[in-house]
Design a protein that fits this description.
The protein is an alpha/beta fold. It is 40% helix and 16% strand. It has one domain: TIM Barrel (Alpha-Beta Barrel). It has helices at 3-7, 25-28, 37-46, 56-61, 63-66, 97-102, 119-135, 158-170, 185-188, 205-217, 227-230, 235-246, 252-259, and strands spanning 17-22, 51-54, 70-74, 76-77, 92-93, 107-112, 140-144, 175-178, 195-198, 222-225. The strands form two sheets. It has an eight-stranded parallel beta barrel with strand order 1-2-3-6-7-8-9-10, surrounded by five helices. It has a two-stranded antiparallel ribbon with strand order 4-5. It is globular, with a radius of gyration of 17 Å.
Length: 262
């Protein structure tokens, strides 16, 4: 199967994707809203998700449920919440391309954190994974987080995100996951790969939907969001709301009505 064919399992015909990230158990274990993976998977698929980003264990255990959508396998990992508090920059490759293909993945994801103490090692992880994946026609999603997950606010400005996203493309990632920032067109216009925005910690729902609408208007190719979906009162409705923006051109207000069950 070629890279393009696998990408078509993730991105819809309009070139956009609603990806629901369900890999949080690798760090948090049974976190709120994700205690029952099978139920959560069914909820977001019923809401119209195009693809799910998840762990090897979930990909193997819930293969039947996941067969209905694109599958992005997390290839790396870091210290859990049971270990020594981390700056969010530590990351190692845990799974191989062969293992991803064995579970039917359409892409692999690796996180890189330019601007943090372990910048070089995380960028090397992304380059190594991309080199190996492309031998087999397997796309790679570069999750580019400038400054690391717990970095200072100045590492999340437009210029920093634009540099990080471009670095991911330069290292061969087929599509990029990056934080949303104001003037997001500065990010998308300077990155020669599709960019989807990440969600981060659970926040105000209307504000999140507004950010998605603004990002799409600025050229984003979709979203890769987790906690802001599965920690909602109704994950199916929130997924449908995001789908309405990404694929249907709905406004944030219209989407919020959908998310609220209206």
């Amino acid at each position: 199967m070629t890279t393009i064919r696998r990408l078509n399992n993730i991105f819809a015909a309009d070139g956009r994707a609603v990806i629901i990230a369900l890999d949080h158990g690798l760090i948090d274990g049974p976190c709120e809203g994700f205690e029952d993976p099978g139920r959560t998977i069914s909820q977001v698929i019923d809401g119209g998700a195009d693809a799910i980003l998840t762990s090897y264990g979930i990909a193997t255990r819930f293969s039947t449920e996941l067969s209905r959508v694109g599958l992005i396998l997390r290839g790396d990992g870091a210290a859990t919440n049971l270990g020594t508090p981390s700056d969010g920059s530590a990351s190692s490759l845990f799974f191989t391309v062969e293992e991803a293909l064995r579970v039917g993945a359409d892409a692999m994801v690796v996180t890189a954190m330019p601007g943090c103490e372990k910048e070089e090692s995380t960028l090397a992880n992304l380059a190594r994974m991309t080199r190996e994946a492309h031998k087999w026609g397997l796309p790679v999603l570069g999750e580019m987080v400038p400054g690391g997950f717990n970095g200072p606010p100045e590492t999340r400005g437009t210029d920093a995100v634009a540099i990080a996203a471009r670095l991911g493309a330069e290292l061969g990632a087929d599509f990029i996951k990056a934080p949303y920032t104001e003037d997001f067109q500065e990010v998308t216009s300077k990155t020669f790969a599709p960019v989807v925005i990440l969600g981060g910690s659970k926040g105000d729902e209307h504000a999140m939907l507004s950010n998605i609408a603004d990002a799409i208007a600025a050229g984003a190719a979709g979203v890769a969001i987790g906690r802001n979906v599965f920690q909602c009162a109704n994950p199916t409705a929130m997924t449908a709301a995001i789908v309405a923006i990404v694929h249907g051109g709905a406004s944030a207000d219209e989407a919020f009505t959908i998310a609220s069950g209206g």
